[in-house]
Amino acid sequence: MPLPPGVAEAQFAQALKEFEGVVGAEWVRASDIDAVSYTDAFQLVPAEELLPAGAIVPASAEQLPEILRIANHYKIPLWPVSRGKNLAYGGSAPRMPGTMVLDLIRLNRIIEVNEDLGYAVVEPGVSFFDLYDHLEQHGIDLWMSLPAPGWGSVMGNALERGVGYTPYGDHASQLCGMQVMLADGTQLRTGMGAMSTSLSTYLFRHGFGPSWDGMFMQSNLGIVTQVGIWLMPAPEASARISIKVPEESQLAEVVDTMRPLRLRNTIDSLATVASPVRQAATTSQRSEYFTGKGAMPRDAVLDMIKTRKSGWWSVSLSVVEAEPVVEARVAAIEKAFNEGVKGAEINIRRWRRGDPIEQSGRPRPGLGAFQMLNWRGGPGGHVDFSPVLPPVGRDARTLYELASSTFFRHGFDYFGGFIFGQRYLINTSVLIYNKDDNEMTTAARACFNELVVEGGKRGFGGYRTHLAFMDQMANQNDYNDHALLRVTEAVKDLLDPNGIIAPGKQGVWPAAYRDRRGT
Amino acid sequence: MPLPPGVAEAQFAQALKEFEGVVGAEWVRASDIDAVSYTDAFQLVPAEELLPAGAIVPASAEQLPEILRIANHYKIPLWPVSRGKNLAYGGSAPRMPGTMVLDLIRLNRIIEVNEDLGYAVVEPGVSFFDLYDHLEQHGIDLWMSLPAPGWGSVMGNALERGVGYTPYGDHASQLCGMQVMLADGTQLRTGMGAMSTSLSTYLFRHGFGPSWDGMFMQSNLGIVTQVGIWLMPAPEASARISIKVPEESQLAEVVDTMRPLRLRNTIDSLATVASPVRQAATTSQRSEYFTGKGAMPRDAVLDMIKTRKSGWWSVSLSVVEAEPVVEARVAAIEKAFNEGVKGAEINIRRWRRGDPIEQSGRPRPGLGAFQMLNWRGGPGGHVDFSPVLPPVGRDARTLYELASSTFFRHGFDYFGGFIFGQRYLINTSVLIYNKDDNEMTTAARACFNELVVEGGKRGFGGYRTHLAFMDQMANQNDYNDHALLRVTEAVKDLLDPNGIIAPGKQGVWPAAYRDRRGT
Fold it and tell me: At residue B205, does pLDDT exceed 80?
């Protein structure tokens, strides 16, 4: 178990004792097993590269100033996690070995849900399951937007810019009103909440003067302890549409068909376009189709498609609105695909208020998404290359050709797809590996690294990334000698002179540890 | 003409000479008439309180580093304005006398308009007229969103969080991708633009790591020299709906009827609810209805309403979408008002693609809004109290009763209304005065001051304000001893140690001039 850099064992022991004085002995976890339980569950890199010195699990935000005081005094870096379930990007592991995880899971109050105005106010430890149950138990007629697994933090996911598949699917954009603690223990409220009497803290995003909210996203400038997040009023009707597209070569026409629909909000939710293996992995394993070494050859993929009666590409989208609006939109979507994508098979499932809610497409948290980890057999892990690109057919094709050929060359089945925003695509190219297979894990890293480099050359920057690649991705943000990163680091040093909050997060290093920046 | 604080005349003369060396002698304006022409056109406070030392009008962003170098050397504060036409909030005048206006009106390139992806990239000097003409001349099928007067800056208006009346009416939320120059001459790009090869600079708002965009809104932390701004694809159909509501007492039911429509996007654009005088002032003058002293009595307002055949409240909203969607929404809106607002008279004007564009409600820049300045006679000025409040009937009534009774007591006709966002209302209570009437101008200031204080007590914070009230409004943001303002000022001192960019803007003062903070 590593010590915090530059901290002697006796000093560290003293710090732990003081932390225990704040949160209680049982909530300071510093054994080997604790360290391991907080590290990267998917073991993308050797464990020692991401091993914490332990964890502190406070009971409330009120304990944070004292924890921060001790951390500043002993120079103990802290890695705040809300619930730490973002496994593809490193889970609860810290970027720098010897950082202590500050696990906010016990800050789990749902402080308010306002049904009339469509928002919730939550602490970091509130999971999608928790909020869903709360809405159910209180009969609150609001829908959540969810990522694939439901055990993560509502707040943490939004701060990290996670996505869901409703009109509220850009989760970061639904945040309104934050309570944040700075490294010196100062608590502030952003936006309208800066006025202590404000009635509009969770309603109006902008506030008066410069707006800080974005500065606390994917950030180590403060510890967010509460957020307002907008929830969608339950719709009157919905249609869930899935479309089979027969040929690999049709990606560009799919994207060019969807772009105007998405830009005009005819498709009003984030939509997805999934590759064959991505479709197959939700219900089956690779061994059912192919047992050879290396990536599945094209013939095997074609056989699999035939067996599964799927398309090459599968488009999933939903429309949620008043019923006549849904019908108008569905008609426009059908027409566009029939005209624009040859051989598209369109399947539509309609729901209206009063029908069984299970048919509505209302997002419901679950853990089924982890089925995909079984694709390769063995204990599975995955790491996601997640570049942003324009919703333009030729760009999607360029990215796909790069990603799929790179996957193939490194022995991985192309598992990926596109998340379709209003003016952007996020590609997620998911490397699934058997964690027990060193060779495969090494290949995953090499493949990922190549994708970052080659993607960057073509103008595809990442919107988030695994801990092990944060520096590389930050380094790509090279405009004017990394001016944006330099100014962010200057602010980091101002607000956190000892560099105790999340050193290295998203490539932002405090002065104290700046020599640890990777390449 | 005031000198910059602490700068001797000879030093100032030397600085001007150096500025001339950069931009040319004709673009450094430092005569008395120049100073006056840049001060507050509406003369809300005595001219000397807002008088600049002159103005510098650079030709391009490339001249800024040298201008900033000189300004830092001689400690000459600069007040950047895009076009300086935001007259109700102080126009191009600086907050601190002796600041030089940095007039960016010549940075007027429309760098790109992307019709397929719905955005424009503009410099600060591009007006709504300019961009509108560009779209017209090139037959680009995108709609703009506009504030009332069209001579202002597209960029400046969005940075200051101005509004329009389309689905893109929250202009700040349409910004995506900024180019900014810091006080030390460092140029940076925010969001995806931080990667110099990025294809998604104007498409994906979030970027990698902390997001800076909000920090440059209503801000003095940098000089924004370029922005991407999203434009709406021209719709297939529209309906413009105006609704007369007979009684003053019906405000709460109007708001409570509209809230769910707005929250569900049944009304998909920013809508307005206008008071009787606000309606009347667009086409007539007060003297046609009332010639007495002080505020119009209630009887005179009722007579005016009768004469004009208007309602007490006038609701204006539009729906823009595909035709069947428009029809579905119009029906839902009609039903809600018929059920929720007794005596509501609903007028609907429909347009579909192919009909004359003038009937579409497509926003078109103009200057007609200034007609309202004639309401009181004499050379008119106005100042707007603009608090944010929840879209809840009882809150709207509380605000309205406060504002209208305060107006009345100070001798002003209540001219105001509500801008209806998705989860918020912005009230604009507009004090129109005769600039030549000292007594009336003094009363306007007193009335405004009272509204800020009493509004604050009731939880109504401002979303922007006139220069003369910036400190007062910033001071209301009192949470944890003004923690948010303190941290913003710490960043200000870090990025701009000499405090040369826009000292005092939105109450953010650099160390060099912090003793000038008002109350």
Answer: yes
Asked if A119's CB is within 8 angstroms of B188's CB, the reply is no
Contact B200 A325 (CB under 8 A): no
Q: Contacts by B396-404 with C-beta closer than 8 Å and gap 24+?
A: B396/B251, B396/B252, B396/B255, B396/B425, B396/B427, B397/B251, B397/B252, B398/B458, B399/B427, B399/B455, B399/B458, B399/B460, B400/B251, B400/B427, B402/B451, B402/B454, B402/B455, B402/B458, B403/B427, B403/B429, B403/B451, B403/B455, B404/B275
- Report pLDDT for A369: 82
Residues of A in contact with B476 (CB under 8 A): 195
Pick from A163-167, A247-251, A294-298, A364-368: least confident: A364-368
Please give the biggest Cα pair distance in chain A: 72
Query: Does A21 contact chain B (CB < 8 Å)?
Result: no
The DSSP element (H or E) to which B318 belongs, if any, is strand B313-321
Show the tokens assigned to B153.
Answer: 């800056």
A199 vs B contacts (CB less than 8 Å): 389-390, 395, 458-460
Interface test with A, best of B119, B206, B225, B335 (most A CBs within 10 A): B206
Q: CB–CB of A317/A337 below 8 Å? A: no
Residue A325 to residue B327, Cβ atoms within 8 A: no
pLDDT at A35 (0 to 100): 84
How wide is the angle at C-alpha B292 spanned by C-alphas B288 and B297, nearest 5°?
85
Say if B238 is an interface residue toward chain A (CB within 8 Å). no
Q: Which two tokens stand for residue B21?
A: 């060396």
What is the per-residue DSSP string for B17-71? Answer: HHHHHHH-GGGEE-SHHHHHHHS-TT--S-GGGG--SEEE--SSGGGHHHHHHHH
- A424 contact B CB<8A: yes
- Round to whole Å and give the CA distance between A160 and B113: 31
Tens-place pLDDT, residues B392-438: 999 999 999 999 999 999 999 999 999 999 999 999 999 999 999 99
Output the six-digit token pair for A427: 């590609």
Structure tokens at B499: 């405090």
Dihedral pair phi/psi, residue B132, rounded to 5°: -60, -50
**Taking the CB of residue B292, how many other CB atoms lie within 10 A of it?**
9
For chains A and B, what is the number of CB pairs under 8 angstroms?
305
Q: From the candidates A140, A174, A184, A200, which should be mutated to test the interface with B, based on the most B CB atoms within 10 A?
A: A200
Q: Chain A within 8 Å of B39 (Cβ-Cβ)?
A: no
B456 touches chain A (CB under 8 A): yes
The predicted model scores a pTM of: 0.97
pLDDT category of residue B519 using cuts at 50, 70 and 90: confident
Which residues lie closer than 8 Å to A359 by C-beta, 6 or more apart? A349, A351
Q: Which pLDDT score, from 0 to 100, does residue B47 have?
A: 86
Among A263, A484, A494, beta carbon nearest to B118:
A263
Residue in chain A closest to B331 (alpha carbons) equals: A324
List the single residue in B with minimal CA-CA distance to A233: B264
- CB-CB neighbors (< 8 A) of B207 in chain A: 463
- Distance CA(B274)–CA(B425), nearest Å, equals 13
Average pLDDT over residues A109-114: 98
CA–CA distance, A138 with B225 (Å, rounded to integer): 49
CB burial string B58-69: b at 16+ within 10 A, e below: beebebbbbbbe
Q: Is B388 on the interface with A (CB under 8 A)?
A: yes
The answer on pLDDT for B163 being more than 80 is yes
- Candidates A153, A226, A231; CA nearest to A190 is A226
The tokens describing B467, both together, are: 């220069």
Q: What residues have CB less than 8 Å from A467, skipping those under 6 apart?
A: A40, A50, A89, A90, A93, A94, A95
| Residue A89 and residue A466 in contact, taking contact as beta carbons nearer than 8 Å | yes
Nearby residues of B401 by Cβ (< 8 Å), 6 or more positions away: none
